[in-house]
Amino acid sequence: MMPRHFLLALSFLTRIPVPDLGKLEAPDFARAALFYPLVGLLIGVLLCLPLLLFPHAQALLLAAMLVVLWAMLTGGLHLDGLADSADAWLGGFGDVEKTHRILKDPLVGAAGVVALIGVLLLKFAALAVILENGHWWAVLLAPAVGRALILLLFLTTPYVRAGGLASAVTEHLPREPALWVTVITFAVAMLFSLQGLFTAVLGFWLLRRMMVQRIQGCTGDTAGASVEIGEMLWLVGVALSVG
After folding, report:
1. How far, rounded to the nearest angstrom, does the alpha carbon of residue 195 sit from its chain's CA centroid?
2. What is the DSSP letter of 159?
3. How far apart are the C-alpha atoms of 141 and 47, rounded to whole Å?
4. Domain range summary for the chain, segments of one domain joined by +
5. pTM over 0.85, yes/no
6. What is the DSSP letter of 239?
7. Residue 48 · residue 136 · CB < 8 Å
């Protein structure tokens, strides 16, 4: 059943088409979560294709292409979570109920727009530096690091919204395998850039601290925000170490 759970993770995290997976139960979504970093690695492979197709293109142009391709591959799933989280943090004013209400609102406010622009701008700038220095491996690993942070979040933080796919994942997540998948992903990333990993994990810790203080846990939207911010901070960390 391993390929089935991988394909389930692929269908959930990307817009890549997959065959019909038949009837799915809540534990299937939890087991699929173990493949999140592997799906991230596949996204990284696809992001590296423009680097192979256009080896003589300027770093700035390639960085812009990657930012757009990144959003297309994921369908903006995590960007949506980032925008909702930013709106809720600003608009909630410390009120837990109001914060949750804004998190569920599909409309994007000013804080969400600013958050999206800020994260995408930092991603673009970091990618330009990274590509200028030939560190393509940072692009390959960034989506895997970001999705390993989802596992780390679900392993360490209560899920506070009833229902939904993320609720099923956190309830049935095989905790020991999830921990090993997270550790292995971080270990591989550390071999390439200790500063990049440290920056991403530090940002995750601060973000998780804010989640616990404001809503006493996490939601699917804040998990998406963790991915986007984690990817961005990994890239920024790598760029600062080489720039």
Report:
1. 18
2. B
3. 10
4. 33-242
5. yes
6. H
7. yes
